[in-house]
Amino acid sequence: MAAQSATPLLKVEGLKQYFKVNKNFTVKAVDDVSFEIYPGETYGLVGESGSGKSTIGRSIIRLYDPTAGKITFDGQDISGRLTHAQNNTLRTQMQMIFQDPMSSLNPRKKVEDIIGEGLDIHHMYKTREERREKVEKILAKVGLAPEHAERYPHQFSGGQRQRVGIARALIMNPKLIIADECISALDVSIQAQVVNLLYNIVDRIYIGHISGIGAAALTGVGLFTPILMLLNAFAMLIGSGGAPRTAIAMGQGDKKQAEKIVSNSFTMLLLFSVVLTIVFYAAAPTLLRLFGASDTTLPYALAYSRIYILGTICVLIVLGMNTFITAQGFAKISMLTTVIGAVINIVLDPILIFGLGMGVKGAAIATVLSQAVGAIWVIRFLTGPKTILKIRKEDMKLEGKIIMPVLALGISTFVMLSTESLLSISFSSSLARYGGDVAVGAMTVITSASQLCTMPISGICQGGQPVMSFNFGAGKKDRVKQAFRFQLTLCLSYTTIFWLLMMLVPGAVAGIFTSDASLIDYTTWAMRIYMAGIFSTGVQIACQQSFMALGQAKVSLLLACLRKLILLIPLIFILPHVVANPVFGVFLAEPVSDIIAATVTATTFFLQFNKILDKGAGRV
């Protein structure tokens, strides 16, 4: 980091630190070292083990009396005998994070007292409540929960103990921190949790195990996530908008109209593929830089993204057209599209990444090839003899009256998926700011767990959508109501059971995704907050998706925006300033938005349901 002042904060001149073993032998641990550190500057000492790095730090903070040389800190000479006032200034303005956390923490004291000892000595609080608040805030900042304050050092893992040491230094708000390899004891799996939300979990596992470059490659691939989400969003713009329109047309007995919708949707996906491929391929370097790619991670991000982008047409066909298979009632064929791609990816990844030594490029190629097979599978089915509705060449010419209603109906899903990247950035940036690495890692585990809830109910609603749309098109109101009741009961029952599981045994759930003790502890605390309102998502998704099944594009779009754009994202930034613990506030944003969105969505749906059914499909 560039210097911010012409006057150095710390100046070391000719520092020597000798240790006399006996009258015949003296260890010269540090011999004539000089350097300067300016305010706002990060300064690194590099050397092999035993070269004296730790000794220099201990000498500067005056744990050792220097043999010779001069140390000037904030304009004062601190290399000689220190006065009481100088010693107090040094202990408040300079702190050290030690390499071995266990040997630097008092085993007889609780964490609250270890962290708060400096506050006690220098009288830096007025009440015990203020002291407790400061300790809890700094615990949250280093990724530990408030209840950790009552524990002893031996009750923590190595990574957690190091966080306690870091908190002890930070709570004094010093001008200079001497960090003696302070992250060497942190849990490696916690550090790896920073990279998340990759499109394919198989790619993530294999890329993370590439020898020598695994972490950087994984980070690079993770930076591609926002583009990946947008590709998915464009695919589902057509898929989620076209499939219900197709089912409604089938329910009305208009097969020709239904086939025109399928064929027009296919053409639109091809056009999207061409435009998105050109735009994202050309803009990839700039976009990845904007997403945070560094000189180290950019090559891997670019290598993966450009190969993946070249396969955009396969991705869009698989995601976008597979919904039309489901809409016709071929659930097994639709499922096989996903299964075939996943199996091929699992097989190809190790062969291309490790066997042929292609690394990140191999992972991208494996994904594109698996998607290509899936695309061929989808096209062959929709042009083959078993499908009810076929993609026909004569129906592929775009017609405004066909494609515009598809886009209008699918826009809500497009908004939901395209805002996922913004939502992810909002959560990760806020948690990193207030809670550090462990909070971001906990969010990764929680997100993975929450997908076990949202994905099945989304699948239930996707399966129920063509049933509701068909009967709505056929004018069978009782069957539409019966389908909705079944869908709502199933979704609410599942999310309620899932909610109970999260409240009762969050630690066991977290243990499925990680074996790291510190992350499990933190996630257990955070998961109960984040998942507190997840039971309501069964109602929210069931009603919102039912609006789509009934062709209510505008209402569905508004409700899709309500939870994420209107409620959740603003609350992520507002609540940390309202509650005492900002990390708690970030996690609290989720259940608050869940419950409000579910209440508004359910109320709107039940007020409009009968009116929509009375109007009938012909008025949609």
For this entry, give a set of tags.
620 residues; four-stranded antiparallel sheet; 6 strands
- The low-pLDDT segments are 183-201
The fraction of residues assigned to DSSP E strands is: 5-15%
Strand order in the sheet with the most strands: 2-1-3-4
Largest sheet: 4 strands, antiparallel
Which structural category do the helix and sheet elements fall into?
Answer: alpha+beta
> Helical residue percent?
55-70%
How many E strands? 6
Q: What order do the SSEs take from the amino end to the carboxyl end, as H and E?
A: EEHEEHEHHHHEHHHHHHHHHHHHHHHHH
Query: Using only CA atoms, what is the Rg?
Result: 30 Å
Question: Distance between the terminal alpha carbons, to the nearest Å?
Answer: 60 Å
Average pLDDT over all residues: 80
How many alpha or pi helices?
A: 23
Specify the overall morphology. Answer: elongated
Structure, explained:
The chain has helices at 53-60, 84-93, 101-104, 111-121, 128-141, 158-170, 188-192, 201-207, 214-222, 225-251, 255-290, 298-310, 312-327, 331-355, 359-382, 400-434, 437-473, 477-504, 506-513, 517-530, 537-549, 553-574, 582-615; strands at 10-22, 25-37, 68-73, 76-77, 94-97, 176-179. The strands form two sheets. A four-stranded antiparallel beta sheet has the order 2-1-3-4. By secondary structure, the protein is an alpha+beta fold. β1 (10-22) and β2 form a beta hairpin. α10 (225-251) packs antiparallel against α11, α11 (255-290) packs antiparallel against α12 (298-310) and α19 crosses α20 (517-530). Residues 183-201 have low confidence and may be disordered. It is built from 23 helices and six strands. The protein is elongated and about 100 Å long.
